[in-house]
Structure formats: structure tokens, C-alpha cells
Amino acid sequence: MTTQHQARAGRPRSEKAEKAIIEATLDLIAEGMGVAELSIEAIASRAGVGKTTIYRRWANKEDLVVDALATLREPLPPLAGESVRDDLIALLDVVRREAGQRRARCVMNVAMGETDRSKRVSERFFKLALEPRRVAMRRVLGRGVANGELRPDLDVELGMALLSGAMIWFSKWGPEGDLPEDLAERVVDHALEGLVSRR
Amino acid sequence: MTTQHQARAGRPRSEKAEKAIIEATLDLIAEGMGVAELSIEAIASRAGVGKTTIYRRWANKEDLVVDALATLREPLPPLAGESVRDDLIALLDVVRREAGQRRARCVMNVAMGETDRSKRVSERFFKLALEPRRVAMRRVLGRGVANGELRPDLDVELGMALLSGAMIWFSKWGPEGDLPEDLAERVVDHALEGLVSRR
């Protein structure tokens, strides 16, 4: 991105200011400040810089927010590619590990927000931070259907909704405190085996 | 609530203003204005009343927001109480029917918001609007375990997470457009039967 490139080419002092601005933006979003409500004033004040320091680097708030959120990109967990169950657990366990951290709070606040005013930002963030995980999970479920581990009539989107939805539900509405360490494993096993009695 | 009582005792003109204030509050929340960011000024301006008209009825913003959100309370759907599957579908189908409506947007924006600043409001709203549905679903799942329809080792909270989480996931992140009419039924059947192949 041009803005990042410019900053990298700048002096160390410049880089420090940029980092403070990015951190302030992420902190405010994580605290629940909607992207639409977020102001350059609030970011400048939190970062301890002047507004002109921000405008020297970013043309507008949207560009700054997109650059800030881009720093939250995380690599996918390594997948063994053997059992579908194990790969699903690896993918969902990322959600557990991130729960409550600033990244997860930003994801929730940006991706769950219903406001049309920040739609452009949400969509760019979705593509960047969430879509790669969805693609990976869709691929694992599709592999399971193809190799017979999963039912042949599986609705892959529905499988994703059950698995990812359960993790999100626990993160937001489960019992207080840290998520149980074996949560991803239990979610996957309940979803794979189903809730009905087989006795 | 005292505030509502006072308003009801007032003149018709007063009731009309109160309705406009409540509607303005809900519209702003549905549009993505965080409870923390919401101001009496913004509500007054949207409702076309003066700030004093609001302060005559509500001591502060939190009380107004709680009263406004309280109007979103919905009765539970009737449950036949025969098959667990049918009762679960009835409970989840409410989520599908409400998706995209103002009530659902308010629920999402209030209940998903991570901000500590509006925690008191979120908690009161959660108790009022969401907890009765969770209690009903927990009871249906518990009945299924007791009567043998569901597996004896079912983790009831986990079952709730899979079922409700899938509906929320589809509402927020599914394909664009209205949710499919049979979504609740398909979610319940996938969750009950499980994703693995039984051939």
C-alpha cells in the first residue's frame, strides 16, 4: 500500500508515530467505537499526535482504518490434511485462542456491525481477515464429502455455519471466562456425530 | 417502569412525542449507532423534539435506551411439546423470520457490541430479549436427553451453540438476500443427524 510504503521510507520518528496511530485506531475499534463514529480527532488524541500528522499519511479515515485492520491479518494454522476432524479442530481452535484478544474484538465489532456507513470498510476487512479462513474450511469439508468421511448430501455452507457459528456463539454468549481448551474438539465432535441418540 | 407510567398518564400529545422518541432511538441503534455513541441530541433531532421533552420523561440516556429496547420484547413461539425436532425448528425459525428486521439489527448491535461503556444496557437487554429464548431451548434439549431422543452425553450448551450459532452465522455471513424458508429445518436436521457419513 502506498501509505505504508511512504511511512517505511520515512525517518524512524515517523514510523513511531505511524505505529502509535495504528495502535490507537485498533484500540478504539476494539473498545466498541464504531467505524462510522470513529473520528480523526479521537485517533489523534489517543495516539498523542496532531491531526496533521495523520493527514500527512492517510487521505481519510477509511484508508487509515483499512490499513490498521490489515495489520490484524493472521496466517492460517497448519493443516495436516489427513483427517477432516483434525483439520476442522485446527481451524476452529484459532477462534478459541483469539477469543477476547484485541484482534477478535475488532473482528466482531467491524464484521458484526450493521451500519451501512462503514460497509466499504467491513467488506474490505472481511475479504482480508475472514475470507481466507472460510475458504480453508470449505475446502476441508468438501474434501470430507469427496473422500466419504462426511455424508454425501452435506450442505457445506450449513456445516460451516454450525461449526463457526458455535465458536462465535461461545465467544460472545457462553459462560464467562476463558473458553475451555477442548472447545474446538467438542464442537467438532458434536457437529460430526450429531445430537440424536443412536442407541 | 416509572417513566412509562408517567407518560401514559400524560396527554395524547405527550404519548405521540414519547413514541417518536422511542422510534428514533431504535432507528439509530438499528443503523449501527453504538449505545455509547448515542446522544440525547441525536435522538431529539431524529424524533423532531427538543431535548427537554426527552429529559422530562427520562433521567438519562441509559434509561431511555432500556425502555426503547424493552418494546422489542417478543413472545416465544408456541411449542407443540411433542417432538424435540419440531420444537427446535419452531424456536430457530423465529430467528429466520426476524432476520434483517429492525428488531434483529438492534439485537445484533446491542448484544454483539464489545464496549464496556454500554455493558449495563446490554446486560439488561440480554435478560429481557434473549434469555427467555435460551431458557426455552435449553428446556427442549434437556427434554430430549431425558426422553432418549437425544444422546445421553449431550452437552446442552454446546447443542445450543451449534443451533443458534448456525442461525446467527447465516443471518450475518450467509449468502446475500432473504434466508431460505427451510433454513431452520435444515440447520436442525444437520445438527441432529451430524455431518459424518453413516454408510
TrEMBL record, chains A, B:
Domain of life: Bacteria
PROSITE patterns named among the record's database cross-references: HTH_TETR_1, HTH_TETR_2
Residues of the HTH tetR-type domain: 15-76
Gene3D superfamilies: Homeodomain-like, Tetracycline Repressor, domain 2
UniProtKB keywords: DNA-binding, Transcription, Transcription regulation
DNA-binding region of this protein: 39-58
Pfam families, alphabetized: TetR_C_11 (PF16859), TetR_N (PF00440)
Membrane-traversing stretches: none
Protein name, as recorded: TetR/AcrR family transcriptional regulator
Organism of provenance: Nonomuraea ferruginea
